[in-house]
Amino acid sequence: MKEAALGFFDSGVGGLTVVRAVQELLPGEDLIYLGDTARLPYGSKSPETIRQFADEDVGFLLSKGVKAIVVACNTATAHALPMLQSKYKVPIMGVIVPGVEAALADPEAERIGIIATRGTIGSHVYQHALATRRTGLMIYGAATPLLVPLIEENWISEEVTKEVLRKYLQPLIDKGIDTLMLGCTHYPLLVPVLQEVLSDDVRLVNSATTCAEHLKRMLEEMDLLISAKSEGSLEIYLTDLSEQFEELAKRFLSQPPGRIRRAVLGAV
């Protein structure tokens, strides 16, 4: 099983920020990514529908023989991860716990802000995970629905994006946050802009890098790290192919993704 690929899925291409972080940390691993672009966004769907979609995503990745799966989607992690972990024997991890553990790695963290989609903030999954691990925290969640379209429009460095961020973040800044968690896999692309908008004493918790680090520890503990030293491969599957998604994939990976294939779910 050590030589098998690692599987990742998201409702779109945002989870490629996690893939990019894993490529940098574990360059020898083969990776397979599934973006369910035909049915995005998951955040507007019911929990039952999200669980059904996530189950089909896992089924597709398992048909490719993966040794472990990362749910590189905050919404699917929030609503489907426990079900997936109980149903399948393959190791499956999400993006929420790694971020929470990274936020709490600083013993002086007291006021934690979270930015994410409405669905993720509304699920209270981050708030609950933080509160159950450390008492006395002040936790503030902010839904930031305009950020994903701005990122996908490649307006990251535009002044309008900075203004939107200032508008979203000001209530959190007024609360005196010392930590800001990026609760969406698109948001790591905003780190340079966030560093401009926030003061230096606010620590950023990057969902992509924390997930990659957690995955490495899990593979080490289970003795599943690949033994080969050659550079790993990346296969990308999308349920809806379009020029837009291919361009986004290039930008999220910061390198050409190679051939992108179409996936048909429920027929594997």
Describe this structure in words.
The protein is of the alpha/beta class. The protein has two domains: 6-94 and 209-262, 3-Layer(aba) Sandwich (Rossmann fold); 97-207, Rossmann fold (3-Layer(aba) Sandwich). It contains eleven helices and ten strands. The chain has helices spanning 16-25, 47-63, 74-87, 96-104, 118-123, 125-133, 147-152, 159-174, 191-197, 207-221, 243-253; strands at 6-10, 31-35, 68-71, 92-94, 111-116, 138-143, 179-182, 203-205, 234-238, 260-262. The chain is globular, with a radius of gyration of 18 Å.
CATH architecture of the largest domain: 3-Layer(aba) Sandwich
Question: Helix content range of the residues, please?
Answer: 40-55%
Mean pLDDT: 93
Q: Unreliable runs, pLDDT <50, ≥5 residues?
A: none
Could you give the count of β-strands?
10
Let me know the largest β-sheet: 6 strands, parallel
Portion of residues in beta strands equals 15-25%
Outline type: globular
The first-to-last residue Cα distance is 21 Å
Radius of gyration: 18 Å
Tally of DSSP helical segments: 11
Just give the CATH class of the largest domain: Alpha Beta
Q: Tell me which oligomeric state these chains represent.
A: single chain
Structural class: alpha/beta
The largest beta-sheet arranges its strands as: 4-3-1-2-9-10
Question: In a few lines, what is going on in this structure?
Answer:
With 268 residues, the chain is of the alpha/beta class. The protein has eleven helices and ten strands.
